[in-house]
Amino acid sequence: MQQKNETEKKNGMRHLDLLDSQNYIMPEDGGVVILDGLGQLPENEPYYSEYIFIALCTNGKAQIVYDGKPVIIHKDEVFVAVPGSVLSDYMLSPSFNCKILIIKSNEITTSQEQQTKFLRSSLHFKDNPVAKMTDTEKEMIFGYYNLIIQRIQNTEQPFYHSIIRSLINAFIMETVGILMHGVDVEAPSSIHGEQIVKHFVQLVNENNGRERRVEYYADRMNITSKYLSTLVRSVLNRTPSDIIRVVTMKEIERLLQYSDKSIKQISNMMNFSNTSFFGKYFKQNAGVTPVTFRREHSK
Length: 299
Hints:
Blueprint (H helix, E strand, L loop, with lengths): L8 E2 L2 E3 L8 E2 L6 E4 L11 E3 L2 E8 L1 E6 L2 E6 L2 E5 L3 E8 L4 E7 L8 H14 L4 E3 L2 H18 L7 H20 L11 H17 L6 H7 L4 H12 L3 H19 L4 H7 L5 H12 L3 H8 L2
Parallel strand pairs: 2-5
Antiparallel strand pairs: 1-2, 3-4, 4-11, 5-10, 6-9, 6-11, 7-8, 7-10, 9-12
Helix pairs in contact: 1-4, 2-3, 4-6, 5-6
């Protein structure tokens, strides 16, 4: 991860950069940043994160708005934010503290099966980002955390990078496992199918849901819509339309909440034929009109 001198913006939101005025630990290749304690937070305004963001609460409690929804984090709880998330409006108790890992998604170098499980899991903890750790889980997670810090500082080890990546991957999978108690994430056996689904989700995220036809993505991957639907159902237990709708709604909500663009401008940006259809689509999925949502959520 490279520290940025100039703050980038995405739809009026700054990219998450917690490195300013922080004491942090970073391995030589920069794939992960560890904040061993909270330190000084940036200004309390929306931040867009492109990384896997893991916070282990060690004391007190905090509230943060995660993709437009308030989330409360207590002592001995873990919070995970997936890439493409917006973090804003944090409120901290006087005693709050935590340990933070910020990880590039391409640092996940586990097997194809494990990557597919992580992809499938991310759809769940996108809406369920906090989980309580048992005493056993806490001992294990902080054991990994301390070992990662110890190993990062030992740069003379001949297998330095391989060891760091292995520990980071184990830490991520153990953490995700805590959030996924009771949720089936068994991956199918078709590596080809898993790769297609991963590519589909990547395309939808890159497009920000502006294109909502399943056929569009199927054509991009030179497969039929029926085949794509079969694979997505098999890997993620969701339909392609479900995935597209989630990404589309997240993008619309971000624009309504964090930009000063008009409803008509947002409708045009999201490729709706007219503002009337845009309003109906949003209300059907959010339960309120775009105007009401903006009034209730804008700062």
